[in-house]
Amino acid sequence: MRAPVGHPATGRRSARHALPIALLTVLILISIGATVLWRAGHRTPQPAFVARAPEPPVPKPAPMREFARFDVFSAPILEPRPIQTPLRLSPPFDVVDATTFQSGDTRIVLTDISGLSRNAVCLDEAGLRFACGLMGRASLANFLRSNTITCVPRFEIGVSKATRSTCYLAGTDLSEFQIRAGFAMPTDRTSARYREAVAIAESERSGAWNGRWAIAPQ
Question: What SS3 class is residue 166?
């Protein structure tokens, strides 16, 4: 027959079961504590905290320089100036060839043209020879005569000290004059005035153009 609830025998049985449970609980707690202590004793040491040096301040960009504005419409207009001071040359002139002459110690070679040498010989349309070089020299000498001329020096030529110059007589360019006379050819291909002078000399058969600028070999 079962003992009724609340019987003293039931209480004794419960007490007997409670004691082992309590002991088991104590052992578990002791084991957990021992494990915690062991881990604490074998923990890997953490490196000490090292403070980082502060980052250097980023330099501020220098302010941009302000440049003055240049107004092309307000800029002064500069007149072209010769490389050297113009020369005033007076007679007598010693004419060397179609493009070269001398006044005192100053020797001038006309610029922007290539002329016939003093000894050049040309062939006319019939194939006959004529002294076009001496004719070119005479052309320049007759034009200069006893006149005063103005020359604008460009540069000197080697050790001869001859000066390449643009020369004018009463407003006439001596280089252009010799081209139109048929005794020189322009080296300045950009000059429309010189190209026109060549066309006139060729159409009029002037100077060496009498034989289509056929120069006999020397």
Answer: strand
